[in-house]
């Protein structure tokens, strides 16, 4: 493909609105493009109008996985955008549009790489399997729906094309990273149940908000202690109280209150440990007659960590310098990707996150450098060919 053809596929993909719905339309477009180049693909629906797209190429026992998601976050207020977020707009080498960075740019680059490998008749010494998912931004719904389909358990390695570049806004250049580790996730809620009464007679009621506040003090003390434990790879846990609610009206003692918390976990301070410890705190607090606390796990994903000495990390480091003309720094991130869902079915595969997107993700006026996008296509082709033929 020439540059115009490559950009045209990204342009069409950006024009298809997929902010938490409608991934099926994008999947069908990509499926048609692939079929035009004699590459078969399969849609796997997971909700009305929402699909994952699976692409397989090559033969052999060694299988290299590629993954990217088709959905985006919402555009936000259109007044914050300098151009239409659903129209790919080139301004001095920057391609603006919702999803350019996170992560239609990375996903389209993977699609184009497969097409060019096919068109060039390159012989692969194994298989490529692309998992294009939906619903990643809001709960990783698409990747979760792929569990049990025998698409993940046999992968030897997985490349996640999520954004992994940082932009220097003074020089106008971007730095490419490769991510070898990501924190886990624990989302939970604590519910406090009390007894309603008139606000003029609070002694007749049990204040659920006050009791929840007592628990929050204990939780803060616990997380302050856990934050002192440094994981050798992922560092310290990151807890955030995200939502708090309670009460119904100002003239009543509240009978209900709820706290929702997200924790970015590490291998050392993992979800299992935190859940056990917080349940023990609640068990002790519930021994008091006025206290009625309940703990519920909402979401739990393990950390993802791959050795820096793994074959896929070594290849990315070696060829990254050639194609991006800079040394590839290896790092970890607190954020999570579909890989965290996939490892529940295959924790043996090596995983690396490297993509052409940058830190403009989720912002108004999101963009990707055109040259980063084009370079990444050539880079990922080389990684695929080298990994399966070495």
Automatic annotation (TrEMBL):
Species: Weissella cibaria
Gene Ontology biological-process entries: diaminopimelate biosynthetic process; lysine biosynthetic process via diaminopimelate
Similarity section: Belongs to the peptidase M20A family.
Sequence ranges assigned to domain Peptidase M20 dimerisation in this UniProt record: 181-286
Catalyses which reaction(s): N-succinyl-(2S,6S)-2,6-diaminopimelate + H2O = (2S,6S)-2,6-diaminopimelate + succinate
Cofactor annotation: Co(2+); Zn(2+)
Pathway the protein acts in: Amino-acid biosynthesis; L-lysine biosynthesis via DAP pathway; LL-2,6-diaminopimelate from (S)-tetrahydrodipicolinate (succinylase route): step 3/3
Highest taxon of source: Bacteria
One of the record's GO molecular function terms: metal ion binding
Keywords tagged on the record: Amino-acid biosynthesis, Cobalt, Diaminopimelate biosynthesis, Hydrolase, Lysine biosynthesis, Metal-binding, Zinc
Coiled coil (UniProt feature): none
UniProt xrefs under InterPro entries: ArgE/DapE, ArgE/DapE_CS, Bact_exopeptidase_dim_dom, Peptidase_M20, Peptidase_M20_dimer, Peptidase_M20A
Entry EC number(s): 3.5.1.18
Protein name: Probable succinyl-diaminopimelate desuccinylase
Pfam families linked to this entry: M20_dimer (PF07687), Peptidase_M20 (PF01546)
């Amino acid at each position: 493909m020439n540059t115009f053809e490559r950009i045209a596929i990204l342009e069409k993909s950006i024009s298809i609105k997929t902010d938490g719905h409608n991934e099926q339309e994008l999947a069908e477009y990509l499926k048609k493009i692939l079929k035009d180049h004699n590459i078969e693909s399969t849609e796997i629906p997971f909700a009305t109008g929402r699909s994952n797209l699976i692409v397989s190429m090559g033969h052999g026992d060694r299988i290299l996985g590629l993954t990217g998601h088709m959905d985006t976050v919402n555009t936000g207020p259109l007044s914050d955008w300098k151009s239409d977020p659903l129209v790919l707009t080139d301004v001095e080498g920057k391609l603006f549009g919702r999803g350019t960075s996170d992560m239609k740019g990375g996903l389209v680059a993977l699609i184009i790489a497969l097409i060019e490998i096919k068109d060039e008749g390159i012989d692969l010494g194994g298989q490529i399997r692309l998992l294009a998912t939906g619903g990643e931004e809001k709960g990783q719904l698409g990747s979760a729906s792929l569990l049990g389909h025998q698409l993940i358990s046999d992968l030897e390695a997985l490349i996640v094309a999520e954004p992994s570049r940082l932009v220097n806004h003074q020089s106008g250049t971007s730095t490419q990273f490769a991510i070898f580790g990501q924190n886990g996730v624990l989302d939970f809620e604590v519910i406090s149940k009390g007894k309603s009464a008139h606000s003029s007679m609070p002694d007749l009621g049990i204040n659920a908000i006050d009791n929840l506040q007592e628990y929050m003090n204990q939780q803060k003390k616990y997380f302050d202690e856990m934050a002192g434990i440094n994981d050798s790879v992922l560092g310290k846990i990151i807890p955030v109280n995200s939502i708090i609610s309670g009460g119904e009206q100002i003239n009543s003692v509240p009978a209900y209150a709820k706290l929702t918390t997200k924790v970015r976990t590490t291998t050392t301070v993992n979800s299992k440990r935190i859940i056990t410890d917080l349940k023990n705190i609640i068990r002790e607090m519930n021994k008091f007659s006025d206290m009625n606390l309940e703990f519920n796990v909402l979401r739990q994903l393990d950390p993802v960590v791959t050795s820096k000495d793994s074959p896929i990390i070594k290849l990315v480091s070696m060829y990254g310098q050639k194609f991006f003309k800079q040394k590839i720094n290896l790092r970890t991130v607190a954020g999570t990707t579909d890989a965290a869902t996939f490892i529940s079915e295959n924790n043996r595969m090596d995983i690396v996150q490297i993509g052409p997107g940058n830190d403009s993700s989720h912002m108004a006026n999101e963009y990707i450098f055109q040259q980063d996008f084009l370079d990444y296509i050539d880079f990922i082709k080389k990684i695929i060919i080298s990994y399966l033929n070495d």
